[in-house]
Design a protein that fits this description.
heterodimer, A: about 400 residues, alpha/beta, 7 helices, globular, B: about 240 residues, Rossmann fold, six-stranded mixed beta sheet, four-stranded antiparallel beta sheet, 12 strands
Chain lengths: ~400, ~240
């Protein structure tokens, strides 16, 4: 067994951190939520799930009726893995608990990227873990189609405490779509998700995550990514529906020369929603590169869009771009771009802009025959259109489609 | 087509255009000369219906209807189109989206491709509109959009400024198409009002009426080639004398 002592230490550290408040955003009272749930039956054929459940999943990019364009599927409902299947050789998809049983070495990856005592939420996940997903591409294997993962909160008032581990072995390529959502309605719920990514030498991972919560859901993901030499990590995060309170700030560390990290964040905060989203990248090795792009829109909610790039090695390059659009009379966007450099010759830059739609642009489109509303919608659609480098065309199309359909509801 | 009666236009409470009257018949193209700041662009923007430009007096009759109260999009749908001298960059909105908007419901990929090819804009059709465009590309893009829109009245604000001599022939061809130069005179239905500084565009458009605008007033109406000759020879100072 991989170190009873180390496991004990991990749990001890978690226990010690159980009341450690996170430095950012409001403190969530974990005692308000249930932490256990009934085991739900496994579904051999997830297309048999109720239509309304499937629709919720479709809205976050998870399709169950036709999986011909997926390399694997995993669905966790509440605390149960109700379906998991890898359909491509060299790709592994299963619940984290099952993976830990299967692979002794996997415990070495647990809490290596994310510290278990980061805050009370990570501690809580360790002590009350309710599965999560394990996705791995074996060396040299490349997904033809993305693997899809869905974390679904079905029961009201439940805390979902998942621990996800994603490993792209040397020279592999893995594309993942993750959709996190709830049952229809507006039940309170809490989603705590720890995700640890290990991108080995020359491997490439694209991770597209769509969140679709409710006005009563608290969300505290804790994510960290370790990227080795010539590895590449591309994250696309989309949240366009209400959420009570979201706070997350994924941290990517480039530990091998010429590693590349890109974050694209698309946020729309309706009235009553609070979103505090950051992306952090540490460039500690020669030639590492990063780009963080955020597009934030408030239609009445509050957004803090953070970005942090730190450069500590020769020939590193980083750019941070945050653009915010205020639609309507209420809502706040607070852009906090930060750069830290400790070496001459590094190239770090940022640009941030927050404001309303320029009247001149609206008029330009109206001059071409669009009504004011049509012109505004076209500009907003364009604002949210991020050209994502490195994403397969089909996946890019799916992402844009998801953004557009969410936009129609959100505006 | 267009009848302007005693039109005065103000921007931020300052009257720029004073008591202007003229008319353009179907198939005619008129040319507007004038030094910088004389109110030419203000007049075109007011005809297009841009909200900053307030009509303080007079009427604009287009196709027999007073359009003073209509919004820009309503005027566009009624058949007025305008190419801007310095259009804004709209990030995320592709040139293709703009052409599609101009074509309206009948839009198709084939039509967009054909129009883009004509304007030699094929390489730029998937770029954000006006983003990083050169002076010539901006003019071609504006005319391409108008060709897609097919307005009955085209308002062109210095379509040739900042365009090199190679590109100006292409700009001329696009304006010809827009204003049906290849049609027999009596068959032309589209009209134009063109602002020019250099007069280069006169080689390409069929215009028999020209105006000189000074300080928001039309001081002269004559053959545009003749006007251009005077301006080239004596400058606008000569025109200012007509104000006195």
């Amino acid at each position: 067994m991989p170190g009873i002592e180390s496991a004990k230490t991990t749990r001890d550290r978690a226990k010690a951190a159980l009341s450690k408040r996170a430095p950012l955003s409001e403190d969530i009272n974990l005692d308000k939520y249930a932490h256990s749930s009934d085991e739900l039956p496994y579904q051999d054929d997830p297309s048999q799930l109720p239509i309304e459940t499937k629709q919720q999943m479709i809205d976050v990019g998870v399709t169950l009726d036709n999986n011909s364009q997926r390399s694997g599927t995993i669905i966790q409902m509440d605390h149960s893995i109700i379906h998991s299947l890898a359909t491509q050789e060299g790709i592994e998809v299963m619940g984290t608990n099952q993976a830990l049983d299967k692979y002794d070495w996997l415990s070495d990856y647990c809490w290596k990227a994310v510290a278990v005592d980061t805050d009370k939420y990570t501690a809580h996940v360790e002590l009350n873990q309710s599965n999560g997903y394990f996705i791995r591409a074996l060396p040299g294997h490349k997904t033809v189609y993305p693997v899809q993962a869905c974390l679904y909160l079905a029961r009201g008032n439940l805390a979902q405490n998942v621990h996800n581990i994603i490993i792209a072995e040397e020279g592999s390529e893995l594309h993942i779509i993750t959709g996190c959502t709830t049952a229809p309605g507006n039940e309170p719920g809490l989603h705590l998700g720890v995700s640890e990514f290990y991108i080995k030498r020359g491997a490439k991972v694209s991770f597209t995550m769509i969140h679709n919560w409710t006005q009563e859901t608290g969300v505290r993901p804790r994510t960290s990514i370790i990227v080795e030499e010539y590895g590449m990590f591309l994250s696309n995060y989309v949240i366009m529906k209400p959420v009570q309170s979201l706070q997350t700030s994924p941290l990517a560390r480039c530990v091998g020369d010429n590693a590349v990290v890109r974050f694209n964040n698309i946020l729309v905060a309706p009235r009553g929603s609070t979103m505090d989203l950051g992306s952090r990248v540490i460039l500690d090795v020669k030639g590492a590169k990063t780009e963080i792009i955020s597009r934030a829109i408030t239609t009445g909610g509050d957004i803090i869009a953070r970005g942090y790039i730190e450069g500590n090695a020769p020939e590193v390059k980083g750019h941070l771009e945050c653009r915010g659009l205020i639609l309507g009379e209420e809502g706040v966007i607070h852009a906090i771009p930060e750069l830290k450099g400790s070496l001459a010759g590094i190239d770090l830059s940022h640009e941030a802009a927050v404001g309303k739609i320029a009247e001149e642009e609206v008029e330009y489109l109206m001059m071409r025959g669009l009504t004011r509303d049509e012109a505004t919608a076209t500009i907003v659609r364009g604002f949210l259109r991020v050209d994502i480098e490195g994403l397969p065309p089909q996946l890019n199309l799916e992402l844009q489609r998801a953004i557009e359909s969410s936009q129609e509801d959100a505006m | 087509m267009l009848e302007i009666n005693h039109l005065s236009v103000a921007v931020e409470d300052k009257e720029i255009v004073h008591d202007l009257s003229f008319s353009i018949k179907p198939g005619e193209t008129h040319v507007l000369f004038g030094p910088n700041g004389s109110g030419k662009t203000t007049l075109l923007m007011a005809l297009m219906g841009a909200p900053r430009y307030h009509i303080t007096k007079g009427s604009i009759i287009f196709k027999g209807k007073d359009i003073v109260e209509l919004s820009m999009d309503e005027r566009a749908r009624l058949g007025i189109g305008m190419s801007l001298q310095r259009p804004p960059v709209v990030r995320g909105v592709k040139t293709r989206d703009m052409v599609a908007a101009c074509i309206g419901e009948e839009t198709s990929e084939e039509t967009i491709a054909r129009i883009a090819e004509e304007a030699k804009m094929g390489d730029l059709i998937d770029r954000d509109i006006n983003y990083g465009f050169s002076g010539g590309e901006i003019k071609r893009s504006e005319l391409m959009q108008l060709i897609a829109q097919q307005p009955d009245l085209a308002l062109l604000d210095e379509p040739e400024s900042g365009v090199d001599l190679v590109n100006i022939a292409l700009i001329g061809e696009l304006i010809n198409e827009l204003l049906q130069k290849e049609y027999h005179i009596k068959d032309r239905t589209r009209s134009g009002l063109v602002i020019t500084h250099t007069g280069h565009i006169l080689e390409y458009v069929n215009a028999r009426t020209g105006y000189v605008m000074i300080n928001g007033t039309i001081v002269c109406e004559a053959d545009p080639h003749e006007i251009l000759g005077v301006i080239k020879e004596k400058g606008y100072e000569e025109c200012r004398k007509c104000l006195e």
